[in-house]
Amino acid sequence: xxxxxxxxxxxxxxxxxxxxxTREGTEYGAQEYSLVDKTEHVKRQLEKGEIYIxxxxxxxxxxxxxxx
Length: 68
What we know:
- The protein has a single domain (2-66), classed as Arc Repressor Mutant, subunit A (Orthogonal Bundle), CATH 1.10.10.
- Helices cover 38% and strands 21% of the residues.
- The protein contains 2 helices and 3 strands.
- A 3-stranded antiparallel beta sheet has the order 1-2-3.
């Protein structure tokens, strides 16, 4: 189920983004970025509609999914 980010609190969206960023294996290339930089980058992707929040009712988990 797609969940519009603007229907969640800022804290909830930030927590989803930070969980996504800090997953083991998430790679951003050769250049190092801070958690704040990574969070802002993903937040912009949400705002532009490039990614969306997908909630799985069965597992009661959510993830960020690319629209591509």
